[in-house]
Structure formats: structure tokens, C-alpha cells
């Protein structure tokens, strides 16, 4: 996408003297903007209403209560294209221990129920965040079940997976029955690509998909694709210790992310889904 001078002039910032494409994820077009005041980070979704970025803005606002996040300078629609204008952060290196403490502080922000004020309807796998009093109901009916249904519709399911899933479903109900689960603020997509360290070494969370849920759900994502070391978990545990049995429950939360990837990328993730289902 080429951003014309006329398009750029409608942004709520001083005159843009350069707009350079940069890496910004697989669903957005991203640019580094140069102005007299300094650089900005711009995300654009062509031919899309301004509401496209509403959930991300709400997520950054929520996370900012406990973590460093890019400042939001504006969002809206220009010539039919949705945009989100953010602080441009120069990156550096930092401490995994500090990152763990940051995530723990985010999880200490709580709500009365599970869910969020708005759904995330713009992702490749839309999410229903309607409020629930019971976490197990939310997790099964608003996270796992929709992914299983989509897998069925796209020929990515079979009788063996269906049988194993029903067994896992019952196990989740049983293991959560006597747990006290607090609705914690979750990043929602906590993989290594969604955190950075600023030039000063400050842990910073980006590209959230927030909800209030079981904090173990957020941590499960950190265990799948790498990017978080032992110092991260030590920093987390020192700040907000996890309840006994966390490691045994972990596969039931890893299952969600693996099912999501099965739906997005097909049978490449089939073996990982089957192994997780068969663990019960």
C-alpha cells in the first residue's frame, strides 16, 4: 500500500516527511513515520472501518494499568482505511526476570467476571468475549468449542479427535471444580513476538488480545513457541506465585493455542493437537 501525501496529511500529527514500511504482523500494513517531532508507528488496514482497531486500543489501555505499552496517539479512518497511530519504540535488550514481573503485575489487575467489554471480531479466528461468572463455561463454550466446530467445518477433525476432546472437556470441568479462579487481566496472545524491550531495557507488551480469565491460560502460550526462559518464570513466581497443580493443568490451556494454529495452518499442527488431546 502506498500512502499518499494527501492521506498522510489527515493524520493528527505534524507533517510527515517519510513513511517507510516495516514489519507489523500478518494482518496489518505497518509504517515508520518521520516528523519534525520524531518518529511514529502507523498500522493501516485498507478498506476497513475505524472500528477495526477498537479492541487493540482497549487492550493497550487496559494493559497500561500495570505494564509499559506503546502510547496511542490516535485511531480512525482515512479515505476508507482504518489506522492506528502509536508511539515508535526503539528496541534494545532487557531482563527476562523483569518481564516475568511485568506479566505478573498485569495478572494482578482483576475484574468481577470473565470476558471483556467487547468481542474481538477482526482476528482470523473471531472471539466471543461476552461476560461469564464461571471461567470453565467461558473457556469451553467461548474458546475451545468454537475452534473444534471450525475444525469440523474445514475437514480438520476426525472421530478420534472428537472422542479425545470430549474426554479432555470432562477433565477440564473436573479439575476446575474446586479451584478459586480469579478473573485476571490477560494479554491474550503472549508469544515472543508480542513483547519487546525498549532501548532502556523496559519490558513492553504489544499487540494484545485482552480478556479477563485464568492467568494460567496466558502463561500457557509462553510455553509453546519459546522466547521465555527460566528467569521469566522466576520473576513471575516471585511476584505472583502460581497455585499447586499448574504444570498438570498446562496442557489443557496449550490445547487452545494449538487448536487455533490447526485452524489457521492445517495439519501441520495436527500431531501436536493429537498429543495434547491424548494426554487427557
UniProtKB/TrEMBL annotation:
A GO molecular-function descriptor: kinase activity
Keyword Nucleotide-binding: no
Record flagged with keyword Kinase: yes
Keywords: Kinase, Transferase
InterPro entries: Fructo-/Ketosamine-3-kinase, Kinase-like_dom_sf
Pfam families: Fructosamin_kin
Similarity comment: family membership: Belongs to the fructosamine kinase family.
Matching PANTHER family: FRUCTOSAMINE 3 KINASE-RELATED PROTEIN, PROTEIN-RIBULOSAMINE 3-KINASE
Protein's UniProt name: Fructosamine kinase family protein
Organism of derivation: Candidatus Levilactobacillus faecigallinarum
Lineage: Bacteria, Bacillati, Bacillota, Bacilli, Lactobacillales
